[in-house]
Design brief:
Length: 279
Amino acid sequence: MRTVVVTDSTAYIPREMRESLNIYMIPLNVIFGEEAYQEEAELGAAEFYQEVKAKGLPTTSQPPIGQFVELYEQLARDYDAVISIHLSSGISGTYQGSVTAGGMVEGVTLYPFDSEISCMVQGFYVLEAAEMAQRGENPDAILARLEEMKQTVRAYFMVDDLTHLQRGGRLSSAQAIIGSLLQVKPLLHFEDKKIVPFEKIRTRKRAMNRIVELLGEAVSEGGQYRAVIIHANREEEAIEWKAELEEAFPHVEFMISYFGPVIGTHLGEGAMGMGWYRR
């Protein structure tokens, strides 16, 4: 069975990596006033943070159903199955859009997968699926592996300003107000597909140290781990953190990624996080 993998732009998988693994990408949209941009295709992370400084925060929108239908119809000419992996259905309608579009296309079987997360942690599922598809694994085996990964996937992040999440409806007003009053840097994570506070921590440094503790707890259970540091326009800080982590955890494979335009809109510049899974 010929199988291909599709994801959306919030996985933030570099173009060269997508091309080498034959991964297709559906972009979400970022809207500044009357101007709409397709994330990753027309607007990258560096340009986005510059635009925000000049124009303020944009709004975001999921891909139109027609864009999914068009891509799935194109893929139906060459493939029997499409595994479509998307950001958490608890914060976006993108996953449901893929499901709806799959029911409108003939000639190919769609296997939608809700990552229940986003960014390069979502990307971990995509890379695993694409590597398995290239080895000729069938869709059932790929989906079984993705569900297995879900048992060890973890991600924690902190933001400098909770009001972005509150404004976008991803965090309750009460939580944002309390956090702002106390000047806390709460650790956030995904629970039941939504972004919720994990722990309330006073400073940025302590929040990052707590993430390191959580990684250490996971690694102590044994096995090979892959981890990603994710930053919102804080590349130098991410590079320094990666060097420290590689020294502390020599058996963990670390990489650096970023909060791109769509997720950056909701987290704000300065956000920092890390995610991992057992290989």
